[in-house]
Design goal:
The chain is an alpha/beta fold. It is built from 14 helices and nine strands. It has one domain (about 1-175, about 200-300): Rossmann fold, CATH 3.40.50.
Length: about 300
C-alpha cells in the first residue's frame, strides 16, 4: 500500500509503473508528456512491431523527480528498450536550485523515492539539507502541501462567488499556466545563458542518460508540442534557434536522439491551455511520434 504515501497524481504514476509488465517503451517527464502521450495509440501505431507503452509522466515536477521515476521504472521492468523524455524550454539545462520548503505536491516524492537523489542533485543550503533529513522522517511534515492545497481550493471557491466561471482542466486552472511563461526579455536572457560555451546539460539529465544507457535503452529527447502563441513568441527567436542547435549537439554527442516536435500541432484548438494538449492533440502527437520512432528503427538507429 505504498501509494498512500503520495499525492493523487503521483500515486497514478507510481501505480502505472507497478502495474505495467513487459513495457518496451517508457514515456516520462512533466505534465506535458503526461497529457500528450497516449499509450494505447502509440502501441497501435507501432504495428506490426509489438509494443507495450507506459506513460509515467507526472505534472509539477523537475528533472530530479523524473530521474526518480525513471529509476523506478527501469528497476521494475528490464524489457524497456526505448525511453522517451518530453521537455520544453530550458528543462534540459536548468539546475535544481531550491529550498526544502519547495518540496510540496508532487515534488514531495523526493522524500520517498531514494531521498539521497534529492540531496545529491538539488542545490540546497546546509540548513535546507538538514531540514530535508529531518522532515523526510516525519510524514506529517512531508504531507504539509495537502493542507495548503485544500486551503487554496477553498479560497478560490469563495473568491469565485458571483464571478464568471473559470476554465479548468485535469491539471488545474487553465489561466495558471499562462503565468509559467517568461517575458520575452527573460527568455532571450536564458537562451544566452544556456548557449554559453561553458553551459551544458544539467546533472540530473546526464544521470538520466547514463542510467538509460546502462539499462541498454535508447533515449529519445522530445521537444514537446507547443501552442502557436508560444512558437511565435519564443521559438521563432534567433536566440532560441542557437540554443536549440547547441542542445541538439549536446544530446546527440551522448548517443541519444533529439526530436524537435514543438511545431507538430499547429491548431490551437488541440490545446486545452497555454501548455497542454487535449485528447485529440495527444492522439495526433502520439501517432506522429510512433511513426517517427518506427522510421528510425528501420534505419537501425534504435
Amino acid at each position: 500500500m505504498r501509494y498512500l504515501a503520495y499525492d493523487m497524481p503521483a500515486r497514478v504514476a507510481i501505480r502505472a509503473i507497478d502495474s505495467t509488465r513487459g513495457a518496451t517503451y517508457l514515456a516520462f517527464g512533466n505534465s506535458l508528456i503526461e497529457a500528450a502521450f497516449d499509450s494505447a495509440a502509440f502501441a497501435e501505431n507501432m504495428n506490426p512491431e509489438p509494443a507495450v507503452a507506459l506513460n509515467a509522466g507526472l505534472g509539477g515536477t523537475s528533472s530530479v523527480q523524473h530521474l526518480l521515476l525513471l529509476r523506478e521504472a527501469l528497476r521494475r521492468d528490464p524489457t524497456i528498450k526505448v525511453v522517451i523524455y518530453g521537455f520544453y524550454d530550458f528543462q534540459l539545462s536548468e539546475t535544481g536550485k531550491l529550498k526544502n520548503a519547495d518540496l510540496i505536491g508532487n515534488y514531495a516524492i523526493s522524500y520517498y523515492l531514494n531521498p539521497e537523489i534529492a540531496l545529491r542533485y538539488y542545490q540546497m543550503s546546509p540548513r535546507d539539507r538538514l531540514e530535508f533529513e529531518v522532515m523526510r522522517r516525519l510524514p506529517m511534515m512531508v504531507e504539509r502541501g495537502k493542507l495548503w492545497q485544500k486551503v487554496e481550493l477553498l479560497r478560490r471557491a469563495l473568491g469565485g462567488i458571483g464571478m464568471p466561471h473559470e476554465q479548468n482542466n485535469r491539471f488545474g486552472r487553465a489561466a495558471d499556466f499562462n503565468l509559467l511563461e517568461a517575458t520575452r526579455e527573460d527568455f532571450v536572457s536564458a537562451c544566452a545563458r544556456w548557449s554559453a560555451p561553458t553551459a551544458g546539460l544539467s546533472r540530473p539529465i546526464l544521470e538520466i542518460i547514463r542510467e538509460s544507457q546502462a539499462h541498454g535503452a535508447k533515449l529519445v529527447f522530445v521537444e514537446m508540442p507547443m501552442p502557436p502563441f508560444h512558437q511565435q513568441t519564443y521559438y521563432n527567436l534567433p536566440q532560441w534557434s542557437r540554443y536549440r542547435s547547441k542542445l541538439r549537439e549536446l544530446v546527440t554527442q551522448t548517443g541519444s536522439e533529439y526530436v524537435s516536435a514543438s511545431d507538430w500541432i499547429s491548431d490551437p484548438a488541440e490545446f486545452v491551455d497555454h501548455l497542454h494538449l487535449g485528447q485529440a492533440g495527444a492522439q495526433d502527437f502520439t501517432r506522429r511520434l510512433a511513426l517517427y520512432i518506427r522510421s528510425q528503427s528501420g534505419k537501425g538507429s534504435m
